Amino acid sequence: MQTPEGRFEPTRFEELTITVGFRCHSACKFCIVREGMNDFRGVPLERFASLAADNARHRRYRRVVLTGGEVTLEPALFDYLAVARTGGFEHVRLQTNGRRLRDAQFARRLMEAGVDEFFVSLHGPDAATQDLVSEREGSFDEAWAGMCNLAAMGACLMTNTVMTSLNADRLADIVERVAPLRPVRMEFWYYLPMEDVEDRRDLLVPMAELAPRLRTALDRCVAHGIEAVVKYVPRCLLGEHGDRLDNAQPDVVIAEDFYEHYPKFSCLWEARCEHSEHCLGLHHPYVHKYGWEQDLLVPQPRTRPWRAPTWGPAAPVDRPGRRHLPVHPDERAEGHAPWRALVEGVAERHGARLAEVLLQRRACVFRFEIGDGGVDVVLTARSENGPALVRTASFDVHYRNPSGADREACIALVRDAARAIATRDPGGMRLEARKGLVGAEARRSAAR
Amino acid sequence: MDPFDDDLVEAGPDDRYFDYCLEPYEPRRPWRGKLRAESLLWAALRIADEREWLEAPLRAVSTAVGRDLVVWGLKWDGRRIGLELYFYDPRKEDAAATMTAVGRVLEPWMKLEPQVRESIPYFMASLEPSADAVRAGRLEAMRLYLAGERGHAGRSYRLDASGFELENTYRFFDPRRDIEDVLALARASVFVDYGDRRVLAQVLPPELMACRKVCIAKKRRADGVYFSGIDVEALAWFLRRHAWPGTLVEIVLRHRTRFEHVWFDVGVDVRTDATSGRIEFPKSSFYGTM
């Protein structure tokens, strides 16, 4: 959501996306980096190697996603994959248009190089639809052959469909077409206009038209036992499929000014709706074209008070094929082990509980529960003169939101946590204020 | 060197930050090395060829009332930039903030002609100084703002030689928690036709609804909508949307990282054009303190 304080969108801070390069042999009408293709530079291999080495030490990210442009066109792709193998990532995902995967040998090499999740674009159930979207004749047949190869090899196949006016009436057909390949997941993303914010291409489809078609497609997914995920559609329009909404995006390394053009979202019912922390509402280009949809959107009354956000919500672990299964406590506890170790034992000493560790881009939040209240101990990147309770080798330590009757107990816990972090912080634990590419390093033209 | 660099005023350690209701706020970001919002006032007056006429009286008023305690509003009707100054003293504590006292300060440049009875319980008053007023040596009108209702609301009266005239009523809301009231009051309009579902988004655009306070006003010839607490990016969007002089927009954009600590306030008059049926904005404005 867009608020006076900025943008607050769910982020999967356990997942890192590397934009490898910006070349593509398709020209999808909805592409969010059409103009960027001419200008953006991918993340240099040495930069990725540095991030991977850091991750090998501190296990911040569980998954790395390699994307583009079209990532399979990158000549050094296998070098990137070699680096990914050294980074301590549990999963390596390739986001691709799938066209080069028609070469079964190439697809197998990718699997052997460590890719264990293929996230393939599928924007139509047939060549007539998809080739119209991609503006390249034959692109559907190639991608379809690629997906068949993946299915034959038993790969983890996920599909991604960007919903526009060009395919909104074919969503259920897409499910039917791909179901025999047994994809682990199908994702449906509403179109984000980044370069055509006035929608001169007429790709934005009104929610009143889209929603029933999308619900039908989701029904088909259920019938076929396919996990489905929806992004950028208001939750209240999904009916019984509301819990399939997952607007989280990974941490992305890309030219920083990419986000200046990234659509912002709002909903008039933000303070009224139970789901407003994770549902984004409508993006601004949509609101300008079709209005606020204040009568179509129906907030679910809140059961807890609404607070203006100050930190973006952290999305849970992404587990393709197991999204709706409860996360085992052991699996959660394993996450971010080096970060959790900074405060290990502190809660127990105070009769408290470490309820959550939220590792965000600019902060690590340790959420303690104590008595009838709690307190957050927050780490931000070390500064030289910013406000901080304590400055450690890597961090400025803060606290926030103390609550409950026993304020003294809260204070004692915060002090103990700060001491423990100062003692155990090995230095070099990364909480970057800015991780994207900026200036000349972000631009292909400037790099020449 | 850009001639407008002379208009830039650096933020200082003793600066206080107020919105256009003179309610204090914490700067959004550290302010060191950045710019005071009044930089845009001086730049706009230069663009309007009014700075040389107005700088001295404005500085005199600011000195008399107190630094950061005078709210300025810049208005744009598509042809010219206008200025309005607002003086707050809801509890009548500051003798310098009465219209009688402000009138005395301005007298060397322009005589404030209407005499106000200071026993009127106005919590705010405003004036529209201009180069024309200085050339004529007089200000013919002022506005007084009175409350007396529950909640954050008021009404304004224009006072000139012919007497008082009610000009508008207005009410402030939290744009998220009070959204039903915002929608109800906005749509209770004789000037704006909300029949087309897109109109509401034109009147309450998402870029500005991400604000801290929204104010709905009912005026004599249009409705007014004000958005308080927007960042400099939203200000730039607003200025471009309402076709403010390009030079001013460029200044905002060029220095946007140096205005990132400021919450700006903006407003529009809005109505549906009877002939075309389209929404039109006969006036837009933005605010700061000096």
The percent range for strand residues of chain A is 15-25%
Mean pLDDT of chain B: 94
Main beta-sheet strand count, sense and barrel state of chain A: 8 strands, parallel
How many extended strands of chain A? 17
Identify the most extensive interface between protein chains: A-B, 22 and 23 residues
Topology of this protein?
The complex is a heterodimer of chains A (448) and B (290).
Chain A: E1 2-3, E2 6-7, E3 11-19, H1 45-58, E4 63-67, H2 77-85, E5 91-96, H3 104-112, E6 117-121, H4 127-134, H5 139-152, E7 157-163, H6 171-178, E8 185-190, H7 207-224, E9 227-231, E10 249-253, E11 265-266, E12 282-283, H8 284-290, H9 329-334, H10 337-340, H11 346-349, E13 353-359, E14 363-370, E15 373-381, E16 390-391, E17 395-403, H12 407-424, H13 444-447
Parallel strand pairs in A: 3-4, 3-10, 4-5, 5-6, 6-7, 7-8, 8-9
Antiparallel strand pairs in A: 1-2, 11-12, 13-14, 14-15, 15-17, 16-17
Helix pairs in contact in A: 1-2, 6-7
Chain B: H1 38-47, H2 51-65, E1 70-76, E2 81-88, H3 99-106, E3 111-112, E4 124-127, H4 131-136, E5 138-139, E6 142-146, E7 153-160, E8 163-173, H5 179-187, H6 199-203, H7 206-209, E9 213-219, E10 223-230, H8 232-241, H9 246-254, E11 264-272, E12 279-289
Parallel strand pairs in B: 3-5
Antiparallel strand pairs in B: 1-2, 1-12, 2-4, 4-6, 6-7, 7-8, 8-9, 9-10, 10-11, 11-12
Helix pairs in contact in B: 1-2, 1-9, 8-9
